[in-house]
């Protein structure tokens, strides 16, 4: 684990601020200025119409109010487009500097998937990034870079909160998650009917996972992001409810090309406890157990030495059972050089 240098930190802060503005501007264009606005003549009278989601709606006949609305829409949209383009050019200028400073961490395929989920309005609102890819956000929290052994991966895990209505989650694509992936890389295919996994021609895997139902006897429709029959169906995995019911961490990270992206992941303390629990399961593959323990220890060292205020006895982690929090607290204490005083207070 290495701390970011002063130069890396300054560059990262500048990049975060710039990308936040770029993302906000892009989202405003996609919402406030979505569709189009134009005049239409109906029976010799002129009306102002607004088109959103393919539907035209009259805003009233031409008068001072509608003329002002028409001018404000087009002027505002043009100004925002110009601002977005300027920000885009600046981000492109910063990318090679980010690469030179070795700030680019997230694999390009992963970054493209996370950006698209964010753009669709699903990330952080029903979907979170878990597994190894969450570590990229935790690095940014601690101002460090974790070792390659903890970070290298050829798959991404997407946690789906199946309790959330898809209409609430966001603008769900008609072609589902598999369609979203194929829009980025046409070689993505589900590994079988009703599968939770998609794989592309390079062997990169995308897994859609979800916690088990609270009451197993209760029937539940397949957890799909979209409607297509060939869409991915989330597989139920024990222990994920602990990651689902803790605070969401939102961070801007940098991909290997030097471009930023926004991601949403579970609280790192819950991640730590979950990794220790998985590593202790008898049915866990031995090689994966070793990796789980390494990730847990690496994260614990970062939390204890760089973010000591993030205590595991925080009430925000009440969803994580005490039996899981105790080992996490002990591991943190071992790196902090103290005991777990206050844990049972």
Explain the overall architecture.
The chain is α+β, with helices and mostly antiparallel strands. The chain has eleven helices and 13 strands. It has helices spanning 6-31, 64-100, 108-119, 134-142, 148-151, 166-169, 176-184, 241-244, 268-279, 286-306, 322-336; strands at 2-3, 36-42, 45-52, 55-61, 127-130, 144-145, 155-160, 189-190, 197-199, 205-210, 235-236, 248-254, 260-266. The strands form four sheets. Strands 5, 7, 8, 9, 10 and 11 form a six-stranded mixed beta sheet that branches. Strands 2-3-4 form a three-stranded antiparallel beta sheet, covered by helices on one side. Strand 2 (36-42) and strand 3 form a beta hairpin. Helix 1 runs antiparallel to helix 2 (64-100), helix 9 crosses helix 11 and helix 10 packs across helix 11 (322-336). The longest helix is centred in the N-terminal third of the chain and has 37 residues, at 64-100. The radius of gyration is 23 Å and the shape is globular. The protein starts with a strand and ends in a 9-residue tail after the last helix.
What profile does the largest beta sheet have? 6 strands, mixed
What's the helix count?
11
The SS-based structural class is alpha+beta
Radius of gyration, Cα only, in angstroms?
Answer: 23 Å
**Got a strand count?**
13
Helix content: 40-55%
* Separation, N- and C-terminal Cα atoms: 32 Å
Shape verdict = globular
Secondary-structure element order, as H and E?
Answer: EHEEEHHEHEHEHHEEEEHEEHHH
Uncertain segments of ≥5 residues (pLDDT<50)?
A: 338-345
What's the mean pLDDT score?
90
């Amino acid at each position: 684990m290495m701390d970011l240098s002063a130069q890396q930190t300054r560059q990262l802060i500048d990049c975060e601020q710039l990308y936040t503005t770029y993302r906000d501007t892009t989202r405003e264009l996609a919402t406030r200025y979505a569709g189009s606005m134009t005049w239409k003549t109906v029976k010799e009278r002129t009306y102002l119409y607004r088109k959103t989601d393919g539907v035209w709606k009259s805003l009233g006949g031409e008068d001072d109010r509608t003329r002002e609305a028409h001018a404000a829409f087009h002027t505002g949209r043009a100004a925002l487009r110009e601002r977005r383009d300027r920000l885009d050019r600046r981000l492109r200028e910063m990318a090679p500097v980010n690469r030179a400073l070795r700030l680019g961490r997230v694999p390009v395929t992963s970054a493209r998937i996370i950006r698209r989920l964010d753009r669709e309005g699903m990330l952080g609102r029903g979907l979170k990034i878990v597994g190894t890819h969450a570590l990229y956000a935790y690095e940014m929290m601690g101002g460090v870079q974790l070792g390659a052994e903890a970070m290298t991966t050829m798959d991404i895990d997407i946690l789906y909160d199946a309790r959330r209505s898809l209409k609430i989650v966001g603008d769900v694509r008609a072609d589902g998650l598999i369609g979203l992936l194929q829009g980025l890389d046409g070689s993505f295919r589900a590994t079988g009917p009703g599968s939770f996994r998609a794989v592309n021609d390079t062997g990169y895997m995308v897994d859609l996972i979800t916690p088990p139902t609270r009451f197993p006897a209760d029937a539940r429709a397949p957890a799909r992001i979209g409607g297509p029959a060939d869409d991915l169906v989330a597989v139920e995995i024990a222990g994920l409810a602990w990651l689902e019911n803790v605070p969401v961490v939102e961070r801007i990270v940098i991909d290997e090309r030097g471009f930023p992206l926004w991601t949403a992941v579970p609280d790192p303390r819950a991640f730590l406890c979950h990794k220790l629990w998985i590593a202790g399961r008898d049915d866990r593959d031995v090689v994966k157990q070793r990796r789980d323990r390494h990730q847990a220890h690496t994260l614990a060292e970062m939390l204890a030495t760089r973010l000591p205020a993030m205590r595991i006895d925080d009430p925000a982690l009440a969803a994580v059972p005490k039996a899981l929090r105790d080992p996490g607290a002990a591991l943190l204490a071992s790196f902090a050089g103290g005991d777990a005083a206050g844990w049972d207070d």
